[in-house]
Amino acid sequence: MKKIAYCLSTVFLLVVGCKENSNLAHNKAEVSEPKEQVLFIVSNAHFYGDTDINASNHFLEIVAAYDVFAKAGYGIDFVSPEGGAIPIGYISTSDPLQKEYLYNNKFMDALETTNKPSEVIASDYRAVYYGGGGAAMFGVAENHAIQEIVMEVYEEHNGVVSAICHGTAGIVNLKTQDGKYVYAGKKVNGFPDIFENKDAEYYRTFPFSIQETIKERGGDFQYSEKGWDGFYQVDGRLITGQDPTAAAMVAEKIIEVLQQS
Fold first, then answer.
1. Helix (H/G/I), strand (E/B), else coil: 99
2. Domains of the chain by range and CATH?
3. What is the pLDDT of residues 81-101, one digit of tens each?
4. Cβ contact 93:99 at 8 Å
5. What Cα–Cα distance (Å) separates residue 189 from each residue in 43, 91, 210, 219, 221?
6. Percent helix, strand and coil across the chain, each to the nearest 5
7. Chain segment 117-158, per-residue pLDDT in tens
8. What is the model's pTM?
């Protein structure tokens, strides 16, 4: 994991500088009438814990899934614990998909104006998707309002709960109405400890280990020892991926499950 991530403000400077040529910005995936909605859950954390180490949401893990949903005709909204702008990082401008979305004003504006939980109506959504990146370890898992939204989507509206990489941290506290963890007895995936640098300062700020917490609470945590190979798990309406290489596939599997329901 990288210790230093790009800050959202840096990216906005890049985008603002291009707004005069907004006619050049495009998104082939945009549709006028989304058939269903997916809620992306992201973090406002700019730093790892109380350190000055920059934290961010993983840009590719957002755009790779977003692109799949948008091209399939789904609408996408964003929610964060505090609402408003979120930090993004792990950006590669040599990747055509990431570059396209960096210059997409509508998309970047959505990251600057994420919804607060109080602004979200759970019944509007068929699925939730927890984005990853180091920021995902902070502020999301313990947010009760987000938990309530997610479990309403899952239990009352037969929706899908999904996460990618460190985004799986967001599901560790989710419980069903009967008091069981939503992943108890299910195969679940996320960024495994084997790829963390446990001696690094960033890791010492983590409030918990995703892998160990899920195992202790009855989840069957599965992962690829190779890594960066598109590994994911589907167990009913719980869909989780290991790292950025699985983001698009997680989105595709969510669509498959929704089409079958």
1. helix
2. 8-20+44-260 (3.40.50.880)
3. 999 999 999 999 999 999 999
4. yes
5. 19, 23, 9, 9, 6
6. 40, 15, 45
7. 999 999 999 999 999 999 999 999 999 999 999 999 999 999
8. 0.89
